[in-house]
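User: quick one, fold this
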Amino acid sequence: MKTLRLTLAATLIALLPAAAEAVLATRTLMPEFIGTHEWANTVFPLTRADLEGNVVLIVFFNHGSLDSYRDLQIANRWFKKYGQRGLTVIGIHSPEFDFEKNSKAEAAAKTWRIQFPIAMDPELDLWLAYNTHVRPTHFIIDAENLVRGVFQGRGSYREQEKMIQDLLRESGRRLRLKIHAQDKSPEAAAQAASRPIKMGSRTMSSLGNPGKIRAGTQTYEIPPDLKTEFFYLSGLWTLEEQYLESAGPQSAAVILFRGRKIYATLGHQGEGEAEVLLNGKPLTTANRGGNVDLKNGKSYLVLKGGGLYSVLNERTPAEGKLEIIFGPAPARVYTVFFE
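Assistant:
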């Protein structure tokens, strides 16, 4: 009977999906930097041997994600605070979206003002070596190159900073620094802003148009009654696994949201623009996002390839209806984030 239970348990474990597997275990030797094709903010590509004796923070991220962007701001602060006290911070760009595979390390470092070394992991070799499943993910490594802490997603920053300080002291450094990292509770974040919306068929669940969600190209009409935290399509759109793609002029996306800021992960071949309306009116100098231009009494999102675009920047949280009307050139919508 005991043998049967063990056999059944082993079979169930074998059937678990990859996403359920544990990340790289603590007290495991950190993997070497395999598959990294390009580095920035360092004269030479780094190796595991280069890091021995230092505490190391490995940050897995992708540049089309607001979560990664906010997380890297924390990592940058730790680099400034502890970089001269024995902490080495290394960013690993592991692409999630198709357009991110051709990202350049120098461009990513400049755009996001990353000051620590970053490596590009276009084929996800390091991502797989660390058995990572979430962007961002932090691995905190001690002075002997052993993984001591794993933190998936944003948050737990006070706990992480305390671990960094403890490991620095363990390695012989003297510290008299306060922990300044603050964590915002998931409940508070949910009350302040709508949850992110992912647009591909693999993860999409917030489409408000009537009918079944199905792959391929079809024409959508916006229904008369709209619900908050849903998005609606108008015109011709193509649904793919990772994104929605506008397939005709005047194809529009409408989102009822709650929050102060809106960012969108978009893809576009070359340069273009999309008209943006908030509650039926153009944005203004007071609330336009960093990638929105104003001209001829209208507001336009300026599109230049794939990336994270700043659409709306209100001074106070509010509820509203955002509409993005795309031009004749196809544009891909991957994710919309709210703050």
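User: anything notable?
Assistant: The helical segments are 2-15, 48-51, 66-82, 105-111, 125-129, 157-170, 186-192.
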